[in-house]
Amino acid sequence: MALTGHPSTKEDILQHLLKRGHATAQALAESLEISPQAIRRHLKDLESEGAIVHRSVQAGMGRPQHVYHLSEVGRSRFPHHYDEFAVSLLDTLAETVGRDGVGQVLQKQWERKAIAYREQLGSGSLRERVANLVELRRAEGYMAELVELESSPEEPENRFVIAEYNCAISSVAESFPSVCGHELHMFATALPDCQVERTHWTIDGDNRCGYLIQAHRD
Question: What are the Helix-turn-helix type domain coordinates in residue numbering (predicted)?
Answer without folding.
Answer: 10-54
